[in-house]
Amino acid sequence: MAGKQANHGKQVTARAWANIALCKYWGKLGPDNAPATPSLSLALDGLATTTSVTAINRQQDVVLLDGQPAAGAARRRVLEFVDRWRTYTLVSGHFRIESHNDFPTAAGLASSASAYAALTVALAGHAVAELPTGALSRLARMGSGSAARSITGGLSALGAGRDPAAQLLAPAGEVPWGMVVAVVEAPAKEISSREGMELSRRTSPFYRAWVLTDRYHYRELAGALKSWDLAKTGELMEENMLAMHACMLTTQPALIYWSPATLAVLHALREWRRKGLNAWATIDAGAHVALLCDQRDLNKVAGKLKALAEAGAGIRQVIPCRPAGGAMVIS
Ligand code: PMV
97 C-alpha to center of ligand 1: Å? Predict the structure, then answer.
């Protein structure tokens, strides 16, 4: 019955891990976050979101983010997402949605990926039918493009196209690498990725070149990943990130996501690499830097970043991460 919730009080809690892309999604082909560029990512165990969805006897949804009532665009976006599930008649009635991140919800730390993946899996626990992984990934993508890849976790790929679902390339246990995330001092992001990538498509003279370059990187990365070639993967990942930021910088208004600390990490990393450290950098639509390395080198890389933080480079937190699995119901 429309507007009536059959199962008041039923609660489903899900957990999902954020992912950082080695090959980036930046640009849309059309509605529903249809990606213009194929992407590849690693889910990270240090960046989890836990979301509870409870059926309530109310006329509207209630949204709490890290214990506070959600407001503004963040709230609207969640409400639109749940409305979509009702429109598709996957769920009925209203919900109380409570979401917690175990990492700073700072700009560019991929919180929307873990947030929409966890919300998707928790909502699916209220759905009229069981939804296969592909359907969950497509639904999560409609909330946030990168969330499609947090449904599958591990090393995942999301193709370009009108309605792609993420594919798991290697589960977390098979990935020999990890990432160390350097959370840096940076002002709050003024333009979100979903808005920013649309501005890039419309205004950057480099947009077409970016899309073609990304497709090339994707093919090359797929080859390097088959043999777990870390150096080749790292170099391609850095090139891909720099190409995306070139497109961002040439967008109007210019999307300058980096802060001085971002550059300090990039310069230090080059020096460390000259001295034999095997680590490579990537940066999403924000100022924070993630360094890809062998899991055996996670502590070494984290130690270098901590020393740089102590030297006053503007690094607020260093989070070493191993690969994480896909989004799951936990209760
Ligand atoms: O999922 P969104 O809309 O936050 O976009 C993600 C964009 C990047 O993080 C910059 C790249 C990516 O593939 O995750």
Answer: 23
